[in-house]
Amino acid sequence: MALTSPSDSNWNVPNGLSAARFVLAIAVCVLVEWRMLLAAVICFVIAASTDWIDGWWARKFQQVTKLGRILDPFVDKIIICGALIALCAVPGSPIAPWMATLVVGRELLVTSLRGMVEGQGGDFSAKQLGKWKMVAQCVAIVSTMIELQYTNAPSWIHVTSVLSIWTAIVLTVISGLEYVLLVIKKPQ
Asked: Where are the domains of the chain?
């Protein structure tokens, strides 16, 4: 994956999309705090589902930048961690503070490892397990917001919330360990 030349602008379509996703992530947190959960779901789904567009665009049109390689995963973490933290404060939320703390801790660890590996010229691209973790986290967040919005929600919504939360927690731990083991096994 070639980076654009230094003369090219960092503010291209992919980085603009990441910036827009960042604004949506903040909006999600505010909307959850204001208990406007349906609006929060809409913002979250737009922000999370457009994640692949900026990466696809950057690769397709050769607009990969150093800023984009930092901004995109940063925004992903803000979307997920911000939503989980905000949902912890909602009465009746099935997301416990320790769960959000675990996710935030894993993301900080992986970000630190990424900085170390890429600072040494290595590649630290997302692994498949990490992508599935993100999907499970997104399902958990959306189903939790829907469950909290509607007090008489069907029972399958609660089951979906609980199963996806626990799936996300398990995948968070396992994928975090996967990255740690990759760094440990890599010759220096």
From this structure: 13-185
How many helices (H) and strands (E) would you count in the chain? Answer: 7, 0
> Which token pair is 179?
């990255």
SS3 119: helix
In sequence order, the 6+-apart residues with CB closer than 8 A to the CB of 162 are: 94
Task: Please write the tens of the pLDDT for every residue from 127-138.
Answer: 899 889 999 999
Q: Count the neighbouring beta carbons within 10 Å of the beta carbon of residue 69.
A: 18
Using CA atoms, how far apart are residues 142 and 85, in angstroms rounded to an integer?
14
Q: Look at residue 7 in the predicted model and tell me its pLDDT.
A: 38
Architecture of domain 13-185: Up-down Bundle (1.20)
Per-residue pLDDT averaged across 22-33, rounded?
Answer: 98
**Rounded to an integer, what is the distance from CA 21 to the centroid of its chain?**
11
Is 11 exposed, middle or buried (CB count within 10 Å of its CB: 0-12, 13-18, 19+)?
exposed
Residue % of the chain over a pLDDT of 70:
94
Q: What is the DSSP string of 42-74?
A: HHHHHHHHTHHHHHHHHHHTT---HHHHHHHHH
